[in-house]
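Query structure, 92 tokens:
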């Protein structure tokens, strides 16, 4: 996928995002965070629009740029790999 950014620009963006990310939620934070019960997404040349429907009936509309989107997909992949690693292997 072509983003229109040079590699060094993407690296600088990644560094800036990492410095400005909020802290990870603690267990007590997770108890009060809204839970999404539906999600839809639409691509654009500059990233992806994501619409989350949360339990309370509200919608959150987020724009994920290519760097954030890359981290999201990496995180999803890591979760899937972790889950697959914990599954029993079929007998051969």
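Result returned for the query:
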């Amino acid at each position: 996928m072509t983003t229109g950014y040079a590699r060094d620009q993407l690296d600088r963006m990644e560094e800036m995002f990492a410095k400005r990310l909020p802290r990870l939620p603690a267990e007590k934070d997770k108890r009060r965070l809204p839970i999404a019960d539906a999600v839809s997404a639409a691509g654009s040349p500059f990233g992806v629009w994501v619409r989350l429907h949360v339990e309370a009936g509200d919608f959150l509309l987020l724009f994920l740029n290519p760097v954030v989107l890359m981290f999201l997909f990496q995180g999803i992949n890591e979760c899937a790999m972790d889950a697959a690693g914990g599954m029993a292997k079929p007998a051969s």
